[in-house]
């Protein structure tokens, strides 16, 4: 039986100042699922995500990625398997050209020569940015930079693609283009977002994390249509948006 992409069991975590961010989170994400992680600010979403690739450790409970426990023994492999795309692509792109940015991770992992060129080309093709390989990232639009940031992660062939507010600051065309790309990918997706229509469009399943615990887990449309649940966890749909308006 294939291990799930992500299995979180009893995860609790307090920061050194004593602030308890997570109180026993249980979450399983199967391979190929696209799941939206929703919740108000301060709910613990970032703390949870930082446990997925071992940036944060030392709490109670545990996390496994594709059957591997997150910890020092498997840290390099875990960080290859969990690809995080930050909200601001400029936090992720730092090389002189797009090609060099996408090649950075695989090259650091020992990929060289023709194999490296093929990896970079394939990653850029998956996000529709192969024509921009020799451009400096800072010459690209914000939406194009976000797509390159996705390519830098895809080049590592991750098990899970974690996206932090992927639709933020995108114009409508860039938003749609990124949605098309994300739908086409054959990886597990965990999308942290306040953009509830985007969550509904892309993720059949949604999880609400609120005050450090999982408050709801189910079909995205059903969760967004539950007005009482949404209000209780400070989540609001855009004015006039009806959850059934997106299939």
From TrEMBL:
List this protein's GO terms for biological process.
cobalt ion transport
SMART domains for this protein: AAA
Q: Acyltransferase: present as a keyword of the record?
A: no
InterPro entries attached to this UniProt entry? AAA+_ATPase, ABC_transporter-like_ATP-bd, ABC_transporter-like_CS, ABC_transpr_CbiO/EcfA_su, Co_trans_ATP-bd, ECF_ABC_transporter_ATP-bd, P-loop_NTPase
Q: Which domain of life is it from?
A: Bacteria
CDD domains per the UniProt record, alphabetical: ABC_cobalt_CbiO_domain1
Organism equals Streptomyces venezuelae (strain ATCC 10712 / CBS 650.69 / DSM 40230 / JCM 4526 / NBRC 13096 / PD 04745)
| Role according to the record | Part of an ABC transporter complex. Responsible for energy coupling to the transport system. Probably part of an ABC transporter complex. Responsible for energy coupling to the transport system.
Q: Taxonomic classification, please?
A: Bacteria, Bacillati, Actinomycetota, Actinomycetes, Kitasatosporales
A single GO molecular-function term is: ATP hydrolysis activity
Q: Which family does it belong to?
A: Belongs to the ABC transporter superfamily.
Q: What is this protein called?
A: ABC transporter ATP-binding protein
List the GO cellular component terms.
Answer: ATP-binding cassette (ABC) transporter complex
Query: Where do the coiled-coil regions begin and end?
Result: none
